[in-house]
Amino acid sequence: MANTITIPQSMLPEDGRFGSGPSKIREAQVRALDEGAHTLLGTSHRQSPVRQVVASIREGLSSFFHLPDGYEIVLGNGGASAFWDMACASLISRRAAFGTYGSFSTKFAKSAASAPFLEEPVIYAGEPGTFRLPEYTEDVDAYCWAHNETSTGVAAPVRRVAGSREQGAVTLVDGTSAAGALPVDVSQTDAYYFSPQKAFGSDGGLWIAVLSPAAIERASEVEHSATLEGARRWVPPFLSLSAAIENSRKDQTLNTPAVATLIMLANQIRWLNDNGGMDWSTARCAKSASVLYDWAARSQYAQPFVADTDARSHSVVTIDLDDAVSAKQVVAALRDNGIVDTSGYRKLGRNQLRIGVFPSVEPADVVALTSCIDYVVERLAE
């Protein structure tokens, strides 16, 4: 359309950020940056003030995830995509089995396939819009999948593959767009890892992992074997999980982190825990997600992309639009009105909206969003 659609101010959400990552950052987090401008920003990450922030992150996440005995919170630079390579270097001994059902769950499998010191991974592939968990496989030592597939809005169960513990295999689950938004029992994993730019409302460039004693021991064993004469594996310091563990125990990272990211992350963790922790945050996300799914089910032009109601994500909601309604035009009109980051995942290539409903997003704003989408679609049809 040549004319811009103007949504009445009274209909607009108070905050128009609905990104699936980077996600909305609360004003309180920005104020925390200002408060730390003279005492934390531009100072050494190996000195007490910044290390205290890291300590608060580790303690806060330990409480949030109800850490079992022996589990540790470990963090490092590079984001979850760097952790995929770290897992290939330090956690997969020989061969891994993967559940893949979207762009991000597939990327980790591709990293393992390209590692010259690992055997070809076993792939259990599912179609986009569904999930597929890896099955018991005799000759593997790691099972890997994503708790939430960010590209498609599919949530998968987090439970150990039957018999995996007996065979000595570790369970590695990508929680990037799930952690903080979906319930999880981390005792069902050996590494539950994520980046902070989703439910934890911070910037990217950092990875956080909840590690079991088995994962910590595996990293030590793998990296020790890599130093033996005749070993085929090279574990560079940046990808050494043992080095990350050692530094995290000192409340620091191996390399210099973005201190602003740490400050915002610490503030978000404190906000989540003060409001009731995982129970509160996951219920809040479920409420927002149900608003969208219920709206789409009632709509004459929209429907949830994920058919299985049990597999529908409560953090990233994907909604298909009828061919008569252009998602690109809807997204553009929303953006013109300050409602941003609602477009579907580019590589999926569907006529689709993708909406992040992480804890920082107000459920009332999600309700307003549905009314704004209806308003835009009505005007596009004129």
Strand order of the largest sheet: 1-9-8-7-4-2-3
The CATH architecture assignment of the largest domain turns out to be 3-Layer(aba) Sandwich
Q: Specify the CATH homologous superfamily of the largest domain.
A: Type I PLP-dependent aspartate aminotransferase-like (Major domain)
User: What would you report as the Rg, rounded to the nearest angstrom?
Assistant: 21 Å
Helix content: 25-40%
Tell me the overall shape. globular
Q: Which stretches are poorly predicted, pLDDT < 50 over at least 5 residues?
A: none
GO molecular function, one term: O-phospho-L-serine:2-oxoglutarate aminotransferase activity
Protein name: phosphoserine transaminase
Keywords: Amino-acid biosynthesis, Aminotransferase, Cytoplasm, Pyridoxal phosphate, Pyridoxine biosynthesis, Serine biosynthesis, Transferase
GO biological process, one term: pyridoxine biosynthetic process
What do these coordinates show?
Its cofactor is pyridoxal 5'-phosphate. One of its GO terms (biological process) is pyridoxine biosynthetic process. This is phosphoserine transaminase. One of its GO terms (molecular function) is O-phospho-L-serine:2-oxoglutarate aminotransferase activity. Its EC number is 2.6.1.52. There is one protein chain. With 382 residues, this protein is an alpha/beta fold. α7 crosses α8, α8 packs parallel to α10 and α9 packs across α10. The radius of gyration is 21 Å and the shape is globular. Helix content is 36%, strand content 14%. The mean pLDDT is 96. It starts with 26 loop residues before the first helix and ends with a helix. A hairpin with a 4-residue loop joins β5 and β6. It has two domains: 116 residues, Alpha-Beta Complex (Aspartate Aminotransferase, domain 1); 247 residues, Aspartate Aminotransferase, domain 2 (3-Layer(aba) Sandwich), CATH 3.40.640. It has ten helices and twelve strands. The strands form three sheets. The chain has a seven-stranded mixed β-sheet, with helices on both faces.
